Amino acid sequence: MTPSILQPPRFQLEDFHREFEHMPGVANLSTSDTSPWGWHEALQRCPAIGHALDSTRWQYPDTERELIPSIARLYRATPETALLATNGAAEGIFLALSAVRHTSAGQTVVAVPTPAYGAFAGASELLGYHVERYRYEANSDWHIDEAEILRAAGCCDVVVINTPHNPTGHMMASDLIAEVASRLQRRNGWLLLDEVFQWAHDGPLEPISSNVVSIRSLSKLYGLPGMRLGWIAAPEALVDVIRTLQQYSTAAIGALASKLGCAILPSLKSFARPELLESNRTSLRDWASTHADVVHVVPFDQGTTAIIEFKSRLEEREIFERLRLEGVILAPGKRCFGEGGPRPWFRLGYGVDEGSLAAGLAAIQRTLPAIGV
Questions:
Q1: DSSP 268
Q2: Whether residues 164 and 256 fall in one domain
Q3: Residue 151 belongs to what domain range?
Q4: pLDDT class for 203, splitting at 50, 70, 90?
Q5: N- or C-end of the chain: fewer Cβ atoms within 10 A?
Q6: Which of 237, 266, 295 is the last residue of a domain?
Q7: Do 156 and 282 reside in the same domain of the chain?
């Protein structure tokens, strides 16, 4: 007899990508990644990666002596802060939440944003946290409820902040982040700061305070998501716990990711695409203003994603199917993020190449007569 199997919290966004991310013949505007580099393109920008590949041995990498110094050069010297390489930001989020939960006595309460990347709430539930939510409000163009996050900082053990925010593209004000960290510090709480949509080469990066765990990666803005290289910056005592948890799970990052990271990090700016992102932001805003009678693209600041709302009586699912049949994939808000709004909304990723963005917007445009009110 087969044992009964209890399902963990479903990761709706990743389930969606599993079904649609690699669908041929459509413009995929559901992703939050910047257009990925090809091998030869990467080699042109950083010839050192060819040597890195040739010198790779398929052993456990010596990240402490080889890779961590390269990451550390992005930061201002802070003796209290330690660094740990992770298998992308996804592992970083899970390990950081696991470490804080492991070091807490009794029930641990975490405040996570909504809508947001599903790992924040899903991993927290899986680890036994009590999950509270603070909102980006649909009725105020998806801006954050500042009073709500400050209340959370005064009563929760952990607060998760993602800035620039996925999916809205809003930047959280630095003074608000600092106030959240300060309120948490007074009660020995932690701020988990997901900064994967911020440039890492503009540095030097500085931790806000000693109770902050910062997570970054090369996936979202640098076009290297399949490399699976991220890192955690946190106080040494917590990093020591996180390192132990990693030893029990993935053991380490891969040898190739470590070697390539050593080569790429000194030339990280070469892999940034600020011109592409700014050009695509302009194209998206111009397109949205032309079709404002049917769509509303919520004003956004940075990152790679924006929210597009449809002024339609149709349900989210029907809009999605019409878009897909016309040749474009967007991430449905309620299905992927568990959050509805006054109008059907979708996450639109504009970090793709200009041709894909143009093709995707053209496909959306072709559906508007059938979608509009």
A1: G
A2: yes
A3: 53-266
A4: confident
A5: N
A6: 266
A7: no
